[in-house]
Design a protein that fits this description.
alpha/beta, 7 helices, globular, binds fe (ii) ion
Length: 286
């Protein structure tokens, strides 16, 4: 049975959050929820996440899983907020522990910050499946953009995270700590090996030329016309393109706050003696 997919596009970060479910009243999974963050004031908001909450309640859905495709660098995750509001368990790829190790050093986090992924409810290995209601989600390891990237397959739908973008946009960058363009090439080939009619759902869209945001494609469409990687593009060609392009990209606006929160599954850092939580800015590091 094909899952119903409800997208929520966040124009502030170009992120698409998905609710995946069978039918009204069924179990559901939420993928890549956004916590709004105003970097001028250092304030978080839940307007985006509350749209997801409203939809889940309207449809009488039961949240079983809140899935992260990876530790995002462009938005804060609302996973912890949604778990508190709606229930469910937060899951991410097991290689999040590598990402935690990298960024614990970058941010010189408190000694108590654990590198075992225990901030999440469940760490997923490649191929592992989770049932929710009559549906099942399978985790597919697709590293390259980060070491812990997972795509999630539910029936004929695959939520690709930051691997592919829409065909006219291309692929995700591979220059963050732990990223690797050769690895991403292999991960994209893994997606390309799925059935041609497989529905692919992007985590972001950065629409070029004034087109409206889009987020759904197919394996056949990507193989035919993705501007960075389509049938016939060699690993060497892809890595050369990706490496040259990454050298021109600025760091994402929210990478510093995002990573510090997202490697904690969306919890804020521990409050200090005055009762306030702080985020750090490492100088001359990234
Ligand atoms: Fe990302």
């Amino acid at each position: 049975m094909n899952a119903a997919v409800q997208p929520f596009f966040d124009p502030a970060t170009w992120t698409i959050t998905y609710v995946v479910y069978d039918q009204p009243g069924s179990a559901c999974a939420i993928i890549d929820p956004v916590l709004d963050y105003d970097s001028n004031s250092g304030r978080t908001h839940t307007d985006s996440a509350d749209k997801v909450v409203a939809f889940v309640r309207e449809q009488r859905l039961r949240v079983e899983w809140i899935l992260e495709t990876h530790a995002h660098a462009d938005h804060l995750t609302a996973a912890t907020y949604l778990r508190r509001e709606l229930g469910g368990k937060i899951a991410i790829g097991s290689n999040i522990t590598q990402v935690q190790g990298i960024f614990k050093k970058v941010f010189n986090l408190e000694p108590e910050f654990r590198l075992d992924g225990s901030q999440f409810d469940r760490l997923l290995a490649d191929g592992e499946t989770l049932a929710f209601g009559s549906l099942e989600v399978q985790a597919l390891a697709v590293p390259g953009h980060t070491p812990s990237c997972m795509a999630y397959r539910v029936g004929d739908a695959v939520f690709v995270g930051d691997t592919l973008f829409m065909p006219d946009v291309g692929t995700a960058r591979c220059d963050f700590p732990g990223g690797n363009a050769t690895t991403l090439y292999g991960s994209v080939l893994r997606l390309f090996a799925l059935a041609p009619a497989t529905r692919l759902f992007m985590c972001h869209d950065y629409p070029p030329g004034g087109r409206e945001p889009q987020w759904e494609s197919t394996v056949a469409d990507q193989r035919a016309r993705n501007v960075h990687i389509h049938d016939g593009v060699t690993e060497q060609q892809f890595v050369a393109m990706r490496t040259a392009r990454d050298a021109t990209l600025q760091m994402p606006n929210l990478i510093l706050p995002s990573i510090q929160v997202n490697i904690r599954a969306g919890q804020m850092p521990p409050v200090e003696a005055n009762g306030t939580a702080y985020l750090k800015i490492p100088l001359n590091t990234l």
